[in-house]
Design a protein that fits this description.
alpha/beta, single chain, two-stranded antiparallel sheet, ten-stranded mixed sheet, 434 Repressor (Amino-terminal Domain), Rossmann fold, 413 residues
Length: 413
């Protein structure tokens, strides 16, 4: 693994021991749960919203606390930051983000880069939030946080600061693009206001996410110029991009990933109670909805292996019903093109998210004048592509942080 090489930060070698310690300790945590008791967010007063949210601007810090990353003695400074953001209806809510900075100086040009890394939260309950797992909360719902640890570790190895927000918000609104995009952008604002070691107003900012994390990353990038013009993104990378939700949920229905279709159906019914989707569920479906309304993505995958969504509905092909389609279509990417240059990648044999949706999204972005380097990866499947194409994504961000110009327009690699 390249993570075990002696690290270079901004072109300068730092202690090989420090880099190895970061990786080994974090990887060890995946297999050895910490015994330190960490209360879940719903039982932790730090997550409680301030009564005067409306008195603060979007992105303003409400409270902070220093944490020990994963509860382990790592050479990384870490903070949880509660900040004001806005939900999809424009109402003020309390967001939560985690800010990480390696305990060595930034030796590159300018101020230390800040990477907004979006973990695939993919869940309906706060115990699934990245901030809980990063503080050392052990729960199956944090699986995606643990899986993404090597990518975060590599960013830290390079000397970058990392901000990773609970972009689904305090109501855990999976499949709510506007909610997610605003939370990501305001999380960046909060991280810059915190100004940890080496991070300042001139720090270049980048965004990265894969799969569910790509959904939040690209919604934020699409909304940036209008919602947060003060947050200039030097570059955005995203892979395994959830585009064409109907094709995705139909594709996994009845297979080993059928829980993702049930997750989407449950999320829409929960997020939009007036959409009519809840009324499409039969008695069994309503019973499961009550059981699953706060469940995590891994819970759905395990519970619904090889299940068919129609077994829980009163109508045939519920995933094509106009009420469900109208609600889920509102969550499609591509309504506007990000102004930041992008590196987008997707496997041609993705077994979770069909590649046709990715290709169509590229066409829509490019038609709106976006600057994109795209990769139709030949690596097999969704998960292997996340690993195998990460180096290209990281290299693209490094170039943007270094100020290397991009060729305008769309280019395949």
């Amino acid at each position: 693994m390249k993570y075990l090489h002696a690290p270079f930060v901004g072109g300068h070698r730092v202690s090989a021991r420090a880099g190895i310690l970061v990786v080994l300790a974090l990887v060890a945590f995946v297999f050895v749960p910490t015994a330190r008791a960490v209360p879940p967010p719903d039982a932790d007063p730090f997550y409680a919203a301030s009564v005067d949210l409306a008195d603060h601007r979007a992105g303003a810090i409400l409270r902070t606390r220093s944490i020990v990353l994963y509860g382990l003695p790592l050479p990384v400074s870490a903070w949880q930051v509660q900040y004001r953001t806005n939900d999809a209806n424009g109402l003020p809510i309390a967001g939560m983000t985690t800010v990480l900075v390696p305990n060595w100086p930034w030796f590159g040009p300018g101020q230390r880069p800040l990477l907004s890394y979006q973990i695939a939260e993919d869940s309906l309950g706060t115990r699934c939030a990245p901030s809980y797992a990063l503080r050392g909360g052990w729960d199956l719902g944090g699986a995606n946080t643990f899986i993404d640890t090597p990518f975060i570790a590599e960013a830290l190895r390079r000397g970058w600061a990392v901000v990773t927000s609970d972009y689904e918000g305090p109501q855990s609104r999976f499949l709510d693009g506007v909610n997610a995009g605003r939370a990501v952008l305001d999380g960046i604002r909060a991280a810059r206001a915190l100004a940890p070691d080496g991070v300042g107003p001139a720090s270049p900012v980048g965004g990265w996410g894969y799969s569910g994390g790509a959904f939040a990353t690209l919604w934020a990038a699409q909304m940036q110029s209008e919602y947060a013009p003060d947050v200039q993104l030097a570059g955005v990378t995203a892979g395994g991009i959830p585009a064409d939700w109907p094709a995705m949920v139909h594709g996994v229905d009845g297979g080993t990933q059928a829980g993702l279709a049930m997750l989407a159906l449950t999320a829409i019914a929960k997020n939009e109670p007036n959409s009519g989707v809840l009324e499409l569920l039969n008695e069994r479906g309503r019973s499961n909805f009550a059981e699953d309304v706060n469940a995590c993505g891994p819970d759905f995958v395990i519970k619904y292996i090889n299940a068919h969504v129609d077994d829980f509905a009163t109508v045939p092909d519920v995933l094509s019903h106009p009420d469900f389609r109208a609600a889920i279509d509102r969550q499609e990417l591509g309504g506007g093109a990000p102004v930041a240059p992008m590196y987008l990648y997707h496997s041609t044999t993705d077994d979770v998210i069909p590649v046709a949706g990715f290709t169509d999204l590229l066409g829509r972005y490019c038609a709106q004048g976006a600057d994109i380097t795209s990769v139709h990866s030949t690596l097999p499947g969704h998960n292997l592509t996340a690993i195998g194409e990460a180096a290209g994504a990281m290299g693209y961000l490094a170039d943007r942080f270094a100020g290397v110009p991009v060729a305008p327009g769309c280019h395949g690699r």
